[in-house]
Amino acid sequence: MSHLKNVLRLVGCCLEFEQPVMVYEYVEGISVSYLLFRKGNHDDDQTRKLLLSWGNRLQIANEVASAIVFLHTEFTTPIIFKDLNPSNVIIDQNSGVGKILDFSLSISLPPGKLEVVKDIISRNGCLAPEYAISGIVTQKADVYSFGVVLLQLLTGEKMSTLNIEDPEYI
User: Fold this and answer.
1) Is 45 helix (H, G, I), strand (E, B) or coil?
2) pLDDT tens over the chain, length 170 residues
3) What does the DSSP 8-state code read for residue 87?
4) 45 is an active site residue
5) How far apart are the C-alpha atoms of 68 and 103, rounded to whole Å?
6) Catalytic residue selected from 44, 83, 92, 102
7) Dihedral through CA 132, CA 135, CA 136, CA 140, nearest 10?
8) What count of Cα atoms within 13 Å lies in the side-chain half-sphere of residue 162?
9) β-strands 116-117, 89-92: how paired?
């Protein structure tokens, strides 16, 4: 399997259970969600300011985009991450590289297909409206989620929960 520094490396898996168990490389890091939204002591604030400079925010956005492009293009069947949000992006404390993690909701598109119908599952406010309404998942869902993550990186604000069935928000 190809590898990109912005995607945690799969070390192994066990298929003996109803839900496959996946083991990924260990990375000591801090989530972008923690950096953006957690209010802490003075030392935390100094670290947060350093790690979230405008240059670092741009680097994080570029690394997340590279990871999504990698998942969508480097395999015979594209992988849709489906759960891109600031909690699933960490900054490796050793290398400073942004990495996506937690592939528990990701899916691989069937050969020759551009979409798949899946149960609507999301743990964040970054869910693409067309997926939320129809249950149809395409690579565009990851692009939408990336846009939400980018907005959060730029503003430092959490996404409020919207009524996604309201046509005003589609």
Assistant:
1) helix
2) 446 889 988 899 888 988 878 888 899 999 999 888 876 655 666 777 777 889 999 999 999 999 999 999 998 889 999 889 999 999 999 998 999 998 888 888 888 888 777 666 665 667 777 777 788 888 899 999 999 999 889 888 887 644 445 555 44
3) G
4) no
5) 12
6) 83
7) 20
8) 17
9) unpaired
Domains parsed from the chain with CATH numbers:
10-169 (1.10.510.10)
User: From CA 76, how far away is CA 109, in angstroms rounded?
Assistant: 9
Pairing type for strands 89-92 and 29-31 reads antiparallel
Please state, in angstroms and rounded to a whole number, the distance separating the CA atoms of residues 164 and 170.
Answer: 7
In angstroms, what CA-CA distances link 23 with 9, 12, 77? 9, 5, 21
Contact 131, 121 (CB under 8 A): no
